[in-house]
TrEMBL record:
InterPro entries, sorted: YhhQ
KW Lipid metabolism (keyword) present: no
Identification of the protein by name: Probable queuosine precursor transporter
Cleaved signal peptide residues: none
Annotated keywords: Cell membrane, Membrane, Transmembrane, Transmembrane helix, Transport
Ranges annotated as spanning the membrane: 23-47, 59-78, 90-110, 143-167, 188-206, 221-245
Main localization of the protein described in the UniProt heading: membrane
Amino acid sequence: MEPGADKLHPIEASHLQARRERVFLIFAGIFLGTLAMLNILGISRFIKLFETETSGGFPLVFAIAVGVLPYPITFLCTDFISEFYGRRRANFVVFVGLLLNIWVVTIMWIGGVLPGFEATDPATGAVVLDAAGRLPVFFEIRALTFGAVTASMVAYMAAQFCDVWVFHFWKRVTKGRLLWVRNNGSTMISQLVDTTAVILITHYYAHALPINPDLPIGRQLTLFIVTGYTFKFAVAAFDTIPFYIGVHYLKRYLQIDPTREHDLRDNDPAE
């Protein structure tokens, strides 16, 4: 029997298993917390990176939604979970993220239908606009959140499951070697799926992109996709360094061979 095992909580098989579960909870917590934050921030503001103009006089505005800033960290978290805990756990965390999206929408909806102190139209019950023609802050955030979450839920499911699948595809092909291939290959492909879906859904469903009606829509949407993907691509390339460092130290701390394909049973020290 392992020293001190009789003092463990019954749910913990060993100190090693407890250590593995703590690390898993850290990555899952960062993933889910970041996801909730970016869904609230979402498309509430667009950040102008820079602006230029083509030789033909077409303005090029490189901008990203503020919700994009923390998003790449979610892919780094699922890569760590995939590397050490296997595809099933990574997919499970992605599924919990979907439930979290639904939870955010539910709370925002309940917060909007319950009576408050805002002035309402007696005939329709709708909240009255202020002197500037705007809704109260909560209702503006609520409207933007609904649009952002609807767009992100579709893109999120497609991109995150794509990320997990491609990660393990490259892990099998390279037989656990070439860590940078599966890290960058999975993230960069899934980020393209995510960026394209989010931009198109945000425009055609939520109508929340800062579009200039006097310029061609196709060019502007393409520019938003290229800008968002370029930002995510750069971050994905940069996160290879912390991924390598993390794998190097965690494989010894967790006593897990990252070159193997893992599932939930692989993490049981009794096997």
